[in-house]
Amino acid sequence: MIKKETFNFLKDLIDNNNRDWFQDNKSRYEEAKQNVEEFADEILKEIKKIDLSIPSELPGKKTMMRIYRDVRFSKNKLPYKNNFGIGISSAGKGGDTPGYYIHIQPGESFVAGGYWMPQADHLKAIRQEIDYNTQDLLKIIEAKEFMAHFGGLSQQDKLKTTPKGYDADHDHIELLRLKSFTVSEKFKDSDLSSSKSVQLIIASLKQIFPLTLFLKQAIGNG
To answer: Where is 114: in which H helix or E strand?
Structure first.
């Protein structure tokens, strides 16, 4: 579970996002980081039973995103992120492939997964797979439990026009217009601090797994 002290550290960091404060509270950061690493280890232990493509030797600490922000090309010059992030895929933490993400932030925690902004050749392959095997995808994303968790695929990253090679009156043109194929589910701080936190996260990731499998098969990585 995520300790309340971890959430308290993040709350204080949000109010004191500067290097002096962070250095003065480095021990709190290290304790919070260790808590999240241990939580990631618990998640990995269970998700590896579901998604066999995740490397068996992948440890929690290798899935954690850096808390230090790259401010070189950003107008936001705050030096630290206000969250902990856990990224899991067959490529480990990163990699241009479908996977899972756990976001830990006071009042803004969520679980997500799928494939965010795939590269051009992968996007083309996914659209082709959707065109050829639409029913396979619909069976996943229209399933009762999938809808209960996520409400459907995110519509955030989407073309306003028709993708090249497809007709505007295609029966599933709205799916083909997507540029990302992701879902997300919000969680309360109390959910992640409860004794059932791992089970709650895994229940969500379990529903994402068929989507990642469809997407990986589409790009030849299944």
So the answer is: strand 109-115
